[in-house]
Design a protein that fits this description.
The structure is a single chain. The chain is α+β, with helices and mostly antiparallel strands. Helix content is 36%, strand content 28%. The protein contains 15 helices and 30 strands. The longest helix has 29 residues. The termini are far apart. Helix 6 packs across helix 11. A 7-stranded mixed beta sheet has the order 19-18-13-14-15-20-23. A hairpin with a 4-residue loop joins strand 5 and strand 6. Bound molecules: adenosine-5'-diphosphate and magnesium ion. Magnesium ion binds next to loops.
Length: 629
């Protein structure tokens, strides 16, 4: 009799190059990696279209060389991105299939299927792979499967995560949770080591796959997994290494035969397959041969490559990996000595030089290789899936915490980025900030939501905005609350509430406005470090101007109520009026002025004004967040 697994969720590692599905086996109390119809435990993330049929997985990859224009791979690189994203533009140039700009700048893959042209989004392609993974599980479990946990790279932004959920929905799956790949690997590791933690363990997850590279620092304490920091490069992996080898042999072919094969797609593809095989071989051998019959114009190609040469042509890629490792530890504010274990994940982590550099970096620490690097992510996803399923009792309870990759905040007066949730904050998280109107009789406020590390809001990435209406007429400083909430899947919702009348507005940040690509996230963080000094200068001036303008407003307001004509003003009150004029002139003509000019001016007007008012109303301090219309 078929067992009913309908309620039980499966774990899917939806990889750029390979995907893997796993399920928690309640009776045995362990995870089972499910093999596909070809008997393979991993399935290529390929979808192909022909005149007769649609192929997914091994069948699609196997016919790629004969049907390149209609064989789609790397869809994960497009998911949640815009066509005009420079990373997308770059990728398109390298792909044999066609991608065009669709509605809202969405990239659409063009294929010919059953004699007709079809336009498919990355979500649709991914949904086909997810459907295949679901079918693999259903065949094995002999039961319908509805629920799944899907993994994404730690650096996936909000829009990429959402698009992944959409892909799951199109595949008819109820996506219980999106979790980070390194977190999933940490769960697999934690179970493998049977950690029932005595104290806290710091695990460094190094995931070098086919198309992406992710590192994360995860701490495990009494079954609670917390991602302390993550870093990565969305365009670094086995394929880039293959490219290096292809270029190497293209040059060699040129030298030997005085012929350039680089313009011939078919020759390049055949050479690439041979290079990938050679690369894998070099992980266990110190030298390997490469042979391609009739590679170009009937000429056979035969050569060999030593591991040392291979390492030489890829060294900068490997070094880039190490820089990312370092950046992650800096972000986590952790010394490498405090890392207990380094876990290898992803097929390319098998490369000996990569392991050597890592060992060296971590001062001779042994790397953890006990988990199959191809399966660790799906394994962890299956554990998480089971713990979210009803009726599963036997599963180890793990609690996951992830972090935000970039700071999230709002635009405040004079373009100041007011951070509401700092970068690397553990999610889910909810934070509220009380803000104030900046202008007199301000009827509404537009709350602009940004992500990034720069001090100036407009130097960061605009995610979206919401408006709060209906403030009563009155002085500036009408209070309202802005609440940022990020759910378990990393999806941000921003709401605003007028504290005095309870009016509320809420917006879920979607991909309406251009979201960042993962490469851009990295660039932004680096840029922020580079511009730090300039940003501090900007911030000091903006704060000084805001403080002076608020103080001036308070003075003017106080003067309004003195109820005497200016001719009869006592001497010191005339001084106050002069001070107000001076401050206003400074604020109006501020371009060339430095922060200290406003700070000095504030001190001066304060020293004039404070003795004048008996019951002075102190201006709010510099940290006040004021928003204009
Ligand atoms: P992803 O998660 O990005 O889909 P995987 O973790 O499955 O990728 O890794 C696939 C990559 O690993 C491919 O580029 C493949 O060539 C590479 N790979 C697999 N085995 C080895 C090996 N033994 N040595 C070097 N690279 C390998
Ligand atoms: Mg992977």
């Amino acid at each position: 009799m078929a067992k009913n697994y309908e309620g039980c969720a499966i774990g899917i590692d939806l990889g750029t190059t390979y995907s893997c599905v796993a399920v928690w086996q309640e009776e045995q109390g362990r995870v089972e990696i499910i093999h596909n119809d070809q008997g393979n435990r991993i399935t290529p993330s390929f979808v192909a279209f022909t005149d007769e049929q649609r192929l997914i997985g091994d069948a699609a990859k196997n016919q790629a060389a004969t049907n390149p224009e209609n064989t789609v791979f790397d869809a994960k690189r497009l998911i949640g991105r815009k066509y005009s994203d420079p990373i997308v533009e770059n990728d398109i140039r390298l792909w044999p299939f066609k991608v065009i700009a669709g509605v809202d700048d969405k990239p659409m893959i063009v294929v010919k299927y059953k004699g007709q042209e079809k336009h498919l989004s990355a979500e649709e392609i991914s949904s086909m792979i997810l459907t295949k993974m679901r079918e693999i599980a259903e065949a094995y479990l002999d039961s319908p499967v509805k629920n799944a946990v899907i993994t994404v790279p730690a650096y996936f932004n909000d829009s990429q995560r959402k698009a992944t959920v959409d892909a799951g929905v199109i595949a008819g799956l109820d996506v219980k949770r999106i979790i980070n790949e390194p977190t999933a690997a940490a769960i697999a590791y934690g179970l493998d080591k049977k950690i029932n933690c005595v104290g806290e363990r710091n695990i460094f997850i190094f995931d070098l796959g086919g198309g992406t590279f992710d590192v994360s620092l995860v701490t495990i304490k009494e079954k609670v997994f917390t991602v302390k920091a993550s870093a990565g490069n969305s365009h670094l992996g086995g394929e880039d290494i293959d490219n290096r080898m292809v270029n190497h042999f293209v040059e060699e072919f040129k030298r030997k035969n005085k012929l350039d094969i680089s313009g011939n797609a078919k020759s390049l593809r055949r050479l690439r397959s041979a290079c990938e095989r050679a690369k894998r071989a070099l992980s266990s051998m110190v030298v390997t041969t490469i042979e391609v019959d009739a590679l170009f114009q009937g000429i056979d190609f035969s050569s060999s490559i030593a591991r040392a040469k291979f390492e030489e042509i890829c060294m900068d890629l490997f070094e880039e990996c190490m820089e990312t490792v370092d950046r992650c530890l800096v972000d986590a504010k952790m010394d490498k000595i405090s890392v207990h274990d380094v876990v290898l994940v992803g097929g390319s982590s098998r490369i000996p030089k990569v392991q050597e550099l890592l060992e060296e970096y971590f001062k001779g620490k042994n790397l953890c290789k006990s988990i199959n690097p191809d399966e660790a992510v799906a394994y962890g996803a299956a554990v998480q899936a089971a713990s979210l399923s009803e009726g599963i009792k036997n599963v180890p309870d793990v609690v996951l915490f992830d972090v935000t990759p970039l700071s999230l905040g709002i635009y405040a007066e004079r373009d100041v980025m007011t951070v509401v949730i700092p970068r690397n904050t553990t999610i889910p998280v909810k934070k509220t900030k009380t803000c104030f109107t900046a202008l007199e009789n301000q009827p509404n406020v537009k709350i602009m939501v940004y992500e990034g590390e720069r001090a100036r809001a407009t130097d960061n990435n605009l995610l979206g905005y919401l408006c709060l209406y209906g403030f009563p007429p009155g002085p500036p400083g009408h209070p309202f609350d802005v609440c940022f909430s990020i759910d378990e899947n990393g999806i941000l919702t921003v709401s605003a509430k007028d504290i005095t009348n309870g009016n509320t507005r809420e917006v879920t940040i979607t991909n309406n406005i251009g979201r960042l690509s993962t490469g851009e996230i990295r660039r932004l963080i680096q840029e922020a470090e580079y511009y730090q000094a300039e940003d501090q200068k900007f911030l000091r001036k903006a704060n000084a101007m805001n403080a002076l303008s608020r103080y001036t407003y308070t003075m003017k307001n106080a003067m309004k109520h003195t109820n005497v004509s200016s001719k009869n003003l006592p001497m010191d009150e005339q001084k106050v009026r002069d001070a107000i004029t001076e401050a206003e002139n400074l604020l109006a003509d501020n371009q060339q002025l430095e922060a200290y000019v406003f700070e000095n001016c504030l001190n001066k007007v304060r020293s004039i004004f404070e003795p004048v008012v008996v019951k002075r109303k102190r201006a709010r301090n510099d940290e006040v967040v004021a928003l204009d219309e």
